[in-house]
Amino acid sequence: MSDRSRDEVFALIRDHLADELDVDAGAITDGTRFKEDLEADSLDLYTLVQELEDSYGVSMSDEQAAQILTVGAAVDFVLDHAQANAER
Predict the structure, then answer these.
(1) Is 33 helix (H, G, I), strand (E, B) or coil?
(2) 76 catalytic residue (yes or no)
(3) The predicted structure's pLDDT at residue 56
């Protein structure tokens, strides 16, 4: 996918996290860690997974979600899986 698509996915995730966790969106980068940097709990992460599934049509197992520790990893997951779904 193009850089623009990556930027769009990043913006959606950043804005969702900023809204849900009441943090400054400008402080969220690719390397921002959900638990350590944003103090997100399991419910926060669950709602993010739901948002990604609804917005991009990707499916994420609990095991996959547990492996995604940073905002950049979430963006990469969406891009990889949305592209795979589009190719089917």
Answers:
(1) strand
(2) no
(3) 87
State the catalytic residue, choosing from 37, 41, 62, 76: 41
27-75 pLDDT, tens per residue?
999 999 999 999 999 999 999 999 889 988 899 999 999 999 999 999 9
70 three-state secondary structure: strand
CB neighbours of 82 closer than 8 A, spacing ≥ 6?
Answer: 1, 56, 57, 58
Q: Which architecture, in CATH terms, is 3-87?
A: Orthogonal Bundle (1.10)
Model pTM score:
0.86
**Cα–Cα dist 10/27, whole Å:** 13
Annotated domain spans of the chain: 3-87
